[in-house]
Design goal:
By secondary structure, the chain is mainly beta. It is built from one helix and six strands; from the N terminus they run E-E-E-E-E-E-H.
């Protein structure tokens, strides 16, 4: 297994369902002299590479461009609005996924 640092996020295929998931090294568990990083599964990525919304795991953001230079990842449900933006599509997706 690859050595991960605390706070690091990465994408990989889940052995349970074969879908692409995002993972995060969230904390160090100490047992005697040994320390281990605990891996948290943040969720299944959609076709754009986005995680689902924080309040509805079935809701993924729409990724779109409004001007020549600004991209948005946007989700709205139950009166809750969440948005991330970037200068490129990938920056908007990365900003969306960082909130997890």
């Amino acid at each position: 297994m690859t050595e991960r640092k605390l706070g690091e996020q990465w994408v990989g295929k889940s052995p349970e369902d074969g879908k692409m998931h995002m993972y995060k090294a969230v904390e160090v568990a100490t047992r005697g002299l040994c320390s281990d990083i605990v891996v948290k599964d943040l969720g299944i990525l959609n076709k754009d590479g986005c995680l689902p919304s924080a309040w509805d795991k079935a809701l993924y953001p729409q990724v779109y461009r409004t001007t020549e230079t600004i991209w948005y990842a946007h989700a709205e449900s139950y009166g809750i609005f969440m948005e991330a933006k970037g200068n490129t599509k990938q920056e908007a997706i990365d900003a969306w996924n960082r909130r997890a």
